[in-house]
């Protein structure tokens, strides 16, 4: 896997380090990004996507007359 270098404001890097509980800004940002991506996948799994709409829009059976 390739590596990317990103420049961040020092205050932002410190805030990320405090929230993630790490001592390295690089590790902190990596943890935050991984958590963000995992949370997005969990949300998609719960809510579905546009192709799931057809599953919910099935025609309902009509009441039988008799």
Write a short abstract of this structure.
The protein is mainly alpha-helical and 66 residues long. Helices cover 58% and strands 0% of the residues.
Task: Describe the overall structure.
This is VapB protein of antitoxin of type II toxin-antitoxin system. Residues 42-60 have a biased composition (Basic and acidic residues). Residues 42-66 are annotated as: Disordered. It comes from Kitasatospora camelliae. The chain has 3 helices and no strands. The protein has 66 residues and is an all-alpha fold. The mean pLDDT is 79. The chain has a domain at 10-46. It is rod-shaped and about 75 Å long. It has helices at 10-20, 25-47, 53-56. The longest helix has 23 residues, at 25-47.
């Amino acid at each position: 896997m390739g590596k990317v270098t990103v420049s961040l404001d020092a205050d932002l890097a410190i805030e990320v380090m405090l929230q993630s509980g790490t001592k390295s800004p690089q590790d902190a940002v990596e943890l935050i990004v991984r958590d963000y991506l995992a949370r997005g996948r969990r949300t998609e799994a719960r809510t579905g996507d546009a192709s799931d709409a057809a599953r919910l829009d099935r025609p309902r059976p009509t009441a039988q007359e008799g």
